[in-house]
Amino acid sequence: MGAAAPSRWLFSPAADLLAFGGSAALSFALLAVGWRLGLLDGDKADTPEWAWVAAVLLVDVAHVWSTLFRVYLDPAEFRRRPGTYLLVPAAGLVGGVALYDAGPAVFWRCLAYLAVFHFVRQQYGWVMLYRAKLGERTWRGLDAAAIYLATVYPLVYWHAHLPRRFAWFLRGDFAELPAVCAEVLEPVYWLTLAAYFARSAWGGFANPGKDVVVLTTAACWYVGVVWFDSDYAFTVTNVVIHGVPYFVLVYWYRWGRGESRPRGWHLRTAAAFVAVVWVLAFAEELLWDRLVWHDRDWLFGDGWDARQWRWLAVPLLALPQLTHYLLDGLVWRRRGNPGFTLAGR
């Protein structure tokens, strides 16, 4: 009897399409809401509080904390590399304090570019996982170019059209580039994406999950960064397609593989997982607001005067996301994880 054909999905057909296509659809639905509310351009382009809670707090900040379940709350995984998993946050804190001592602007610029690298590499990682699922050996260069340009061209456009009405973390955390950089890269961007989808169509869309990742990444990043000059548009197109699939990945890796379990068990476990990371995200943002920002007393209460401690408070509060950025490229790398599987084989 021949070996079973490899699954072309990372999780399952429904889970993959919901994680990637569904998160992008949600982003565009939120854009439609923003259009109706006048949040896509002009003086009302800032992210309203309800959208900040839904997208930033409950998706972006919360997904960072899900790394706990992949590493620190997984005894088997932690035993594999205990030194690395303890050294990374310790080194991150020391490095963060040193950068903040060099100046808050230096700290935030370095953190912004590390975050950008993480966001770009995550989309590349999805494409490589889909290639590995089907054992693809050809067109690796085109796949890599397409997914990288889907994010890098909007970023170059952003750098070449500063200032914008949105920032990664704070105003001024990106360095300006000459406008010609975006002008030169634009035709390469369109030609590469056209070549990618022409090749995919010629092959009968044999790897649909990979195609959905490239399409949704290109659409969300272009619309959120290039098409609109709006903090709201950037927020809902950027963090939803980044955070939601990551939630699915962590959950599926920890509890979705292996033995079959009743649907009710999965619903309870997923609800508990999400509840824990939401509580941790709220606690983190409460400390950020009370110690540093002081701009959401309606949600977090009155701030504390901790100016003399910001040299420590800011690097310490940034440590969860810094650790997430640094570990993410390690824990999902197939080469260093011989037991790493998702759906099928």
UniProtKB/TrEMBL annotation:
Keywords: Membrane, Transmembrane, Transmembrane helix. The chain crosses the membrane at residues 17-38, 50-72, 84-100, 232-253, 265-288, 308-327. This is Uncharacterized protein. It comes from Urbifossiella limnaea.
